[in-house]
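Page 42, continued from yesterday. The earlier attempt failed because a stray header line got pasted into the input along with the sequence. Redoing it now with the clean sequence only.
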Amino acid sequence: MKKSLQSCLQACIPFRALTLTRKELKQYLNAPAFYGAAVFFLVFCSVWLFYFQQYFTMNQATLRPYFGVFPLVFVLIIPVITMKSWAEERKTGTVELLLTMPYTEWDLVLGKFLSCFGVLCIILLLTLPLPLSLLRLGNFDAGIIFSEYLGAFLLGASATALGLLLSCLSKNQAGAFLGSAVVLLAVMLINQFTFVLNLPDWFARFINFFSLSYHFESFSRGLIDSRDFAYFVLTTALFLYLNTRVILFRKWR
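This time it went through. Structure tokens are written below.
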């Protein structure tokens, strides 16, 4: 009975992906890069809120300036998390061994994604003490804070999936980091060109559609827009699907 249950679980794709996720997650938690990224994220966002935004002089019970800088910080944090996922496998030659194991392409991609996204979730959860410590200073709207965190997780999921795809296309960690940082910077800040350039409305909407930070803005205002929610879910799925296609191409090349 126990063996049959175990064999049934092992035949389940999510179970195989979670097995790989646990292995990858242990490696991340034992790597100095994770702690460096976490400290940088927490310190930079706090300095941005209290020093650059002069939070205590705003006289407003809002954390929008705090969450508003998340897209910019993700440009540096997510490449650090995702750069070694596939690029290091290719550099050391272990990717060939990984492809010969009883994993499907989706098992490998989901395992890598869940581990990287799990690391990002841990970093985001470490920010909870800041809003909790500020709640006593004003009448904060819990619904808005929930919306901001939901948007941060969705934005992080889409950006992590994109970072993994770029890591899979890179030959080493340096190339994966630089490529991910440049592409993430473009998709995060491309909507800023619509403010600088006098573009027609239809063209501005077209450009904003490809901007991750533009779809995050509604969440930062406390609005859970189903269109933006679907955008993050679909882009995450799209980047993961493209990742599986790249692996399949290299597997049969």
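Notes: The CA atoms of residues 64 and 220 lie 6 Å apart.
Reminder to self: strip header lines before submitting.
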